[in-house]
Specification:
The structure holds 2 protein chains of 2 kinds.
Chain A: H1 4-7, H2 15-44, H3 48-52, H4 57-82, H5 86-116, H6 125-156, H7 162-187
Helix pairs in contact in A: 2-7, 4-5, 4-7, 5-6, 6-7
Chain B: H1 4-21, H2 23-27, H3 33-63, E1 68-69, E2 73-74, H4 77-113, H5 121-140, H6 163-166, H7 169-199, H8 212-243, H9 257-291, H10 298-311, H11 327-355, H12 364-387, H13 389-395, H14 399-429, H15 435-461, H16 480-514
Antiparallel strand pairs in B: 1-2
Helix pairs in contact in B: 3-4, 3-5, 3-16, 4-7, 4-8, 4-9, 4-14, 5-7, 7-8, 8-9, 8-10, 9-12, 9-14, 10-11, 11-12, 12-14, 12-15, 14-15, 15-16
The chains are: A mainly alpha, B mainly alpha.
């Protein structure tokens, strides 16, 4: 099933790792385009600081903490996979998934609160950016969690352990996007 | 993971067996790169016919306003808008990209770097399936209430964002979703191409032994990946403006319509090079083979390509000189735009230097390759006028612009494709094409092409604006001389379309085995794809090749034969 091409390593980097870095590169420009658009607006419109004051830094900060912690377990999963301990790697991936779920649930509650206060996606352009950027990021969190569950299932049987590293790279990327979103949307007043 | 290897080997055996058995899995759900290439090729050609039919309908309306167009009917004003919009969209996103990058990339990369398939065959299949879905969504947009999107392929808001302006609420969203799906397909495909060329090369193939066309497709894929992101973000924003009630591009509510133009052209200009580079690569391959000469300045060509790629990210605002951008900014973009013509001109000089002193064989593919350079030069030179902000303020949105970019895109998407298709046809189908019919088709395409677009240059310089449904409503543009030129362009287009029948007839009789077998290497070329059977079997070679030298060792002094294949030991 797997062609010989997949097993070659002419560039000196395993094929899967090489490909995941290209995925990250193309994702960087997607979020980059969105964030640069936001920053250009933001610089021209100081009044957006007043809109941003309505976001809840504590909830955002809690979610930042949750995501960073989940990245720690992703790293530990990678370490377990390198040592050939598939079941342990799977457990740590489940822990990362738990972090992802916590993040999404907290995000849902937060949005619910904000919408009930009248700050919806069509209130003004700040809130449009707020929901679009965080929403696009949230989709990446959900997609990453689903892929992680699939990888954990095979890792449990000690198969395809190199994939643990690949999802880890992706997960760190998702994490770093949030590290940009949090100050831009929540902290900057 | 040691225990997983026997399981994989068993799978491989099953899969192979299965491929021979079921037509369904051989033609529809194949993971073989050659079959996926054919799927892209034929989907792209079908879309080219649809896009060509659209051009036929609206050109007839322009030459003979109000006529009942045979095969279409009366072209109404909103039909006209939808036709020109989707003609542009289809020809760029559903013809040039799938054929030049996806079809040739899929077919050539594994064969030219000497491996058995792409590194991610299932991802490759998924990429085609998403692409097919995108094509279906685009065609479906014509059949929803309100009809197809008519806001031009650039989709500037507020026209594209507000249904009370565009009058195609559903059509606009379908169009946008189709484009977004198409981008997804090419991101998946691009990652596959780049990774395959980087990692799956045959033993012995160093980076400067890679054939130029593979380099070009890889650089094009990287350009695509690094430029399309902002437009994907922009497409999400536009979709929300259309359907959710956000106001990213609506100045009434604090948005900015110019932002879309920046996001669009930040992608849109590199996109020109995304489709140009594969055509450049195809041309380089053909010229070396039919001039029987080593490529002049292989490395310079590559470095020039990298320079073009980097510069292409700095020129986008030359599309927006009249959009109210700061004139000082316009000066900067004028300078960068004129700068980018230097590497492209350098590439053309490399072609000429490659031809100089060669023993040139004017086969059909060679004619196409030569025509590519000649016609593309006209497109490039007229671009100088448009890149200079002073001249562009006059030329903007006239037929001069339209003729200019058709003189770039037609050589890329049509001439480049025919060059590659006629050159690799013997490899793809195992038969030679008829050379006489090929040459009739060549001249029957090239001559009418110039008769279509040279009049449009003249019309544009005379002030004829684009996107006008009926010039009878504009007395200063409705004179007899101007109308005659519109008729000349339309009639030339009809002649060109008729001559495409020769091409399909030629393909058909060649494929029906009336032509002689191609054998492994009919052109006596050096690159690896010519060392296997035509058409190559599943897995490409019984035993994968090893590489000993660069791809262009033609007419090596002291050798009896005038070619020296990459896989032959010294």
């Amino acid at each position: 099933m797997r062609p010989i091409a997949t097993t070659r390593m002419a560039a000196g980097i395993p094929t899967g790792r090489l490909a995941i870095w290209w995925v990250v590169a193309s994702e960087i420009v997607i979020f980059g385009g969105l964030l640069v658009s936001y920053i250009m607006h933001r610089l021209a419109k100081p009044e957006w600081g007043d809109h941003a004051a309505n976001t809840n830094v504590w909830i955002g900060g809690f979610n930042t903490f949750v995501l960073l912690t989940s990245s720690l377990s992703a790293v530990l999963a990678h370490k377990a996979a390198v040592n050939g301990d598939g079941p342990k790697a799977a457990k740590l991936l489940y822990a990362t998934c738990f972090g992802a779920c916590t993040f999404v649930v907290v995000k849902a509650l937060e949005w619910n609160m904000e919408i009930s206060h009248g700050f919806t996606i069509s209130s003004n352009t700040f809130w449009s950016f707020y929901y679009t950027a965080a929403g696009l990021h949230g989709l990446h969190v959900i997609a990453g969690a689903i892929i992680m569950l699939i990888i954990a299932e095979t890792a449990k049987k000690n198969l395809e352990l190199h994939r643990v590293e690949l999802i880890g790279i992706y997960w760190h990327f998702v994490d770093i996007v949030w590290i940009f979103l949090f100050p831009l949307l929540y902290i900057a007043k | 993971m040691a225990e997983s290897i026997p399981a994989d080997a068993m799978h491989a055996h099953d899969d192979h067996h299965h491929t021979e058995q079921s037509i369904w899995s051989k033609y529809v759900f194949s993971t073989d790169h050659k079959m996926i290439a054919m799927q892209y090729m034929f989907t792209g050609m079908a879309m080219a016919l649809i896009g060509g039919f659209m051009a036929y309908a609206f050109r007839m309306q322009l030459a003979f306003p109000g006529i009942d167009v045979p095969g279409y009917g009366t072209v109404t004003a909103s039909d006209y808008n939808a036709l020109v919009t989707n003609h542009g969209t289809i020809m760029i996103f559903w013809v040039a990209m799938p054929v030049l990058i996806a079809a040739f990339g899929n077919y050539l990369i594994p064969l030219m770097v000497g491996c058995d398939d792409m590194v991610f065959p299932r991802l490759n299949r998924l990429s085609y399936q998403i692409f097919l879905l995108s094509a279906i969504v685009l065609i479906a947009s014509f059949f929803v209430p309100g009809g197809g999107f008519g806001g031009a392929w650039t989709a500037y808001p507020p026209l594209s964002a507000k249904s009370q302006y565009s009058l195609t609420a559903l059509g606009s969203s379908f169009w946008l979703v189709a484009v977004a799906l198409e981008f997804t397909a090419f991101l998946l495909g691009g990652i596959n191409f780049v990774t395959t060329a980087m990692n799956a090369r045959a033993p012995g193939m160093k980076i400067f032994d890679i054939p130029i066309v593979v380099w070009m497709i890889v650089v094009a894929s990287i350009l695509f990946m690094s430029s399309v992101g902002p437009l994907i973000a922009g497409a999400v924003m536009l979709f929300m403006d259309q359907n959710v009630g956000t106001a990213f591009f609506d100045p009434d509510k604090g948005g900015d319509p110019i932002l879309w133009q920046h996001l669009f052209w930040f992608f849109g200009h590199p996109e020109v090079y995304v489709v140009l580079l594969p055509a450049m690569g195809i041309t380089a391959e053909i010229m070396c083979v039919f001039a029987r000469k080593k490529m002049f300045a292989y490395k310079t060509f590559l470095y020039t390509t990298f320079a073009t790629g980097i510069l292409s990210f700095t020129v986008w605002a030359h599309h927006q000189f009249v959009a109210g951008i700061d004139p000082r900014m316009a000066n900067i973009f004028t300078v960068t735009t004129l700068l980018i013509s230097i590497p492209i001109a350098e590439m053309c000089f490399i072609y000429i230097a490659t031809l100089y002193g060669g023993s040139i064989r004017l086969t059909t593919p060679m004619l196409w390759a030569l025509a590519f350079v000649a016609e593309f030069l006209i497109g490039g030179v007229t671009g100088i006028f448009l890149g200079a902000s002073g001249a562009d303020i006059y030329f903007h949105d006239t037929y001069f612009v339209l003729a200019h970019f058709h003189y770039t895109f037609f050589p890329i998407a049509i001439i480049g494709t025919f060059a590659g298709f006629t050159y690799w046809f013997p490899k793809m189908f195992g038969k030679m094409m008829n050379d006489t019919l090929g040459k009739i088709h060549f001249w029957g395409t090239i001559i009418p092409f110039n008769f279509i677009f040279i009049p449009l240059f003249v019309l544009g310089a005379a002030g004829q604006h684009r996107r006008i449904y009926n010039y009878e409503h504009f007395p200063e543009l409705a004179g007899v001389e101007m109308q005659d030129m519109r008729v000349l362009a339309t009639v030339s287009m009809l002649v060109m379309l008729v001559f495409q029948l020769v091409f399909f007839y030629n393909c058909f009789i060649s494929w029906k085995k009336k032509q002689k077998d191609a054998g492994k290497n009919p052109w006596k070329a050096n690159t690896l794809e010519w060392t296997t059977d035509s058409p190559p079997p599943h897995g490409n070679w019984p035993e994968l090749p090893t590489v000993y030298r660069g791809p262009y060792e033609y007419s090596v002094p002291g050798r009896e034969e005038d070619y020296f294949p990459q896989n032959v030991p010294d």
